[in-house]
Structure formats: C-alpha cells, structure tokens
Amino acid sequence: MTGTIVVKTVFFAAPRETVWAFLTEKDKLAKWFHPANADLVQGEDYALLDRDSGEKLCWGSVLEMRPVSRLVWSFTVKPLNGAMTKVTWELEETAGGTRLSLNHEGVEAAAGEAAMSLLTALDRGWDEHFGKLRDTIKALILA
C-alpha cells in the first residue's frame, strides 16, 4: 500500500557528490541529522546517536550504496521495538543541482496499530531534518 510510504523530495543547489557526503559521512550527518558512530559503509551496521547522551536514537544496516546515486538503509527507532523499516535515498542531477528523494517504507507493518502516529511523527521529522540539510548545504555553498 503506497499510502503508508513516507515520500519526500527536496532540491539542492549543489552537486550530487556534496549531497552524498552529507548522507554518508559521520561528521556531515551530525550537522543536519544525528551524530553517527561511523561513516556509512555498505553491508555494515550504523547507529545515529543523541547529541547529548550518546544514546542510540535510530539504527540499522546499510543495505545498498551506489555512490552519488542511491543509498538504502534498514532503519528502526525505539518506538518500533527493533522492527526494521527501509529508507531509500535517490540522488539525481537536475538543472544546476541535485534532486534528493526519500522513500521510507515498512512503518505500517512494523508499528501495527501505532502506525499512523509513527508515520506522522516520521513525516514531520524528515521535514525538519531536510530543512536543516538544506540550510547546511546552502551555508557551505555560500562560504
């Protein structure tokens, strides 16, 4: 059912290589999302951490990496009690920059009756994080 997939598309006045770095490199993830325990590597687990406590906020495995074009994670957060969802990132060249698309699927199956509550929270969260990513990349380009 496609209605339960969180779908986001954002545009950046930056090359795909720049956007890719902010999706995969530990120090750059911390600038807009959450600090990571390491750079993301295909086939390896990752954890995104709370800035203050260092506690795991979300985690999973990097399922696929096609540098500068596609990244797929398994993904969970505490409310899912370890049940995994899937986040797919697609980067495409566009006029003068990059279009970044995100599909976050599997929340309904993982969350059961709490799916709508979690879907709305994730939808809002992705919006906030993409706003931070847009501001971070814009500041980098203007520097």
Walk me through the structure.
About 20% of the residues are buried. This protein has about 140 residues and is of the alpha+beta class. The chain is globular and about 45 Å long. It has helices at about 15-25, 25-30, 105-110, 115-140; strands at about 5-10, 45-50, 55-65, 70-75, 85-95, 95-105. Strands 1-6-5-4-3-2 form a six-stranded antiparallel beta sheet. It has one domain: Alpha-D-Glucose-1,6-Bisphosphate, Chain A, domain 4 (2-Layer Sandwich), CATH 3.30.530. About 35% of the residues lie in helices and about 35% in strands.
Short description:
With 143 residues, the chain is of the alpha+beta class. It has helices spanning 16-24, 26-32, 107-111, 115-142; strands at residues 6-12, 45-49, 56-66, 70-77, 85-94, 97-105.
Descriptive tags:
single chain, 143 residues, alpha+beta, Alpha-D-Glucose-1,6-Bisphosphate, Chain A, domain 4, six-stranded antiparallel β-sheet, 4 helices, globular, SRPBCC domain-containing protein, ASHA1/2-like_C
Query: Could you name the ranges where pLDDT drops below 50 across 5 or more consecutive residues?
Result: none
Biggest sheet: strands, sense, closure?
A: 6 strands, antiparallel
The CATH topology corresponds to: Alpha-D-Glucose-1,6-Bisphosphate, Chain A, domain 4
Task: Return the average pLDDT rounded to an integer.
Answer: 94
Query: What is the name of the CATH class?
Result: Alpha Beta
Helix run count: 4
Strands across the major sheet, in which order?
Answer: 1-6-5-4-3-2
The tally of strands reads: 6
Secondary structure: helix percent = 25-40%
How far is the first residue's CA from the last residue's CA?
43 Å
The CATH architecture can be given as: 2-Layer Sandwich
The percent range for strand residues is 25-35%
**H/E element string?**
EHHEEEEEHH
Overall number of domains: 1
CATH level-four homologous superfamily name: START domain
Rg calc: 15 Å
SS-based class: alpha+beta
How would you describe the shape?
globular
